[in-house]
Amino acid sequence: MKFFIDTANLEQISQAESMGILDGVTTNPSLMAKEGVKGNKAIEQHYIDICNIVDGDVSAEVLADDYEDIIEEGKRLAALHKKIVVKVPCTANGIRAIKSFSDMGIRTNCTLVFSLGQALLAAKAGASYVSPFVGRLDDVSSNGIELVSRIVNVYRYYGYQTQVLAASIRSVQHIIQCLEVGADVVTSPLSSIMALLDHPLTEKGLAIFNKAAKELA
Ligand code: E4P
Q1: C-alpha torsion sign, points 20, 167, 170, 158
Q2: Is the Cβ atom of 130 under 6 angstroms away from ligand 1?
């Protein structure tokens, strides 16, 4: 399973990359706004900065809604760097744009996916990635992991090449469940990635070994 970090924060991306476990980055307009990035030029430079840190795909989300505008913006984003994957919302215009990008050889991530039907349209349009939002489904008393599992099974059964990128991850438990149901990629905040390391027996064992190490010195 590939591991993406879900942030536009350059320091956090560098920290995850330096651990040697990072396969890519996802961003969205809210995450970009959180970093105070404003205006087309600054946004484009920020994507280039991210691409220069990470060794993997970087999802850059379009802000446009209309088909023609999505195409124009997506082409501009894709031209910034070969690591850029154009992130497009799962709407009628978005699906049409994903099909056009696919015909042009531009890679896409179909985002804001909350149902198997949406995932089917994303795959048929030729999306490189589909992003089911696990946490936001859980928030409305639905089951995000179950959706990831159903998409994985259907894609494998029919041989769709679209990779299942589990998004809106809120916990270590979500990451482990995505691993168990066969997600191709999980994108999560740095806090959840770091929390994978936590185990009281590791801490206790380390304290014992450190004490013994002092006696050996
Ligand atoms: C990433 O691709 C998504 O935009 C992100 O995971 C959404 O996460 P949130 O539901 O925590 O905003």
Answers
A1: negative
A2: no
